[in-house]
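Re: the request from the purification team.
They wanted to know what the chain is likely to look like in 3D before they choose a buffer screen. I agreed to run a prediction and write the result into the notebook, where they can find it.
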Amino acid sequence: MNFLPKLWNYIKKISLAVAIIVAIAVGGRIAYLYDVSKKPEVVADQLIVEGDNALNMGRYADAERIFEAELKSNGQNQQAAWGLRLAQIRQLLSQSGFKYAIDSLYQENPDDAYVNLFLGEFYAANDQPDKAIQHYNQAIEQNTKLAEAHYDLSRLYNQQGNLGTAKVESLKAIDISPTPKYRNNLAAVYFKQHYYEEAIREYGINKEYPLSSLESAKIYWQLKYLSQAQSYQKQALEWLDDETVMMKPENQEAWYFEMPTGKVIELVKLDEKKSYAYYCLSASLYLQGDKAKAETEVQKLLDLKVARLADIKALLTADLDALAQANGSFSEQIDAYKQLYL
């Protein structure tokens, strides 16, 4: 009769062990689910997000590459196909067929922020600022992360002499995406306002960005600090010669310069950027009386044999004319330099 109590005790022990195991398993599952709930969700279309970010910052070659990568793995992705069309068409801005291409996109989707941005850029390039501003503002309403629209507005207001509003729009672009291009634009506004200290500070934030160094040098020209200007120009050339530095996305972008006539000159290729930097350094050396070294730097740029040398000469001519206007003491040297090399 002692057999039944022993069996009963055995069953209770087994049941208790099973209950503990189940409790541990359930508790572990609950803990796992809790941890999972705390983790950020994985973005389903990561490449789409990256492509849109590139479009928002005006990096159209990057956007094209990203959307092409998405379409290779998912050829039916309509968002990627649309993004690719946008990126490819924007790179035709300076060509005659751009307006027809962008109008076709507008017919398909008039509410697309990028389409309105591109229309704004077309009208800005064709001296229709009111239409440009209308499309820029519409693009911003449709996409609040579109930093490039604020940047374009800033440039347009700068050209119109509305420097206060240009500064506001530039700050908005930086707030969305603090890239060197946008900081460089804000510094250019400060430069135009003669807020030299603020301009140099903004240029200085941009590390390994040759354009900011060259722009800083222009300020030191006007302040008659030629040795400082020369140092910044040499730094720019060191970065331009550094393949790792120049592979950064911001250094793949074009450099834009507004001419006194309202024309905009852009330098796209590395050799064009180097040629401009050599010219700037040459001018600094000449103004300091070192004509031999000035000649050496000019020869370096001539050895590059860039196709658009006339545009680069026009850029430096405008820079030197601005310097002569700001500091008449340099006028004779500038005239002599221009006769020799420009």
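For the purification team: The chain has 18 helices and two strands.
Please add any questions underneath this entry.
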